[in-house]
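Before relying on records like the one below, remember that each one covers exactly one chain. Contacts with other chains, cofactors or solvent are not represented anywhere in the record.
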Amino acid sequence: MLKACEEVGIVPTVFVGASAGALVSATYGQDIPLDVLLDAYRLPWRRRHQGPRLYMSTFLGAPRPRDLLDPGYLLSGAFSIDSLERYLERFLPLNDFTKLTNQVFVTAVDVDTGERVVFGPGYREDVPISTAVAASCCVPGLFRPKKIGDRFFLDGEIIRTLSADLAVAAGANVVIISNVYRPESRRAPERSIARSGMGAVVRQSLNIVLAEKEKRGVELLSRTYPRVVFLDVAPDIGAFGYWNRFNARSLVLRGYRSALRILTEAKERGVFNAVLSKDAALN
């Protein structure tokens, strides 16, 4: 999607993200070149830059000694997200929301209140970007909730698939939505997803729920903010898993082609002519 934005001549200045979208917002949102970010997903022999390297070990951290003294917390997830936080702390050029040129917002959910929490300018801007992104990436069950102060946080997509209202509040009048959660469509005589294993069924179920939440969210946003244009450029990724490094090229190409078509059509319709200074990219 971001590659298509660059080619069409769209320069986002507001970034809102949860989970993987938080990673993109926190990196591209502070002008780390797109090709450097893509290098993190390329196979080792295809890399071009000395940029970030998102290995499995980057995400899957071992428990801290003090966690061993709290068995209830230790059993709240399989891994610690602290490894990702430490990596981002070393890698990010800036680790302070208030020092960024662009407006970057990261969302998470307070596990004890069930409320959305926003990290970024005008909200919780005292928290380092690396800590906020780590909290937003805490997939339930896989990671233990991220502790910030005396509160615990999980993946921001649990409570809301889209947080486009944050972009609108920040001044965006064209909001570009990118969401990889799309259910796969199989027709007879193709093999049923029900016969493709538990992982395929769980992924399909999650994609159905989140895609429907996104659809309803866009409809509500369009009614709530009639003067704002919402462009959904989410691609159909088919049977590809969005964490499959070996399919990274196919996934990127699908996203690029879908976004390029939709953004080009929008530009030809004059959608971006009314943009004063701000677009928003949601991931």
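The mean pLDDT is 82.
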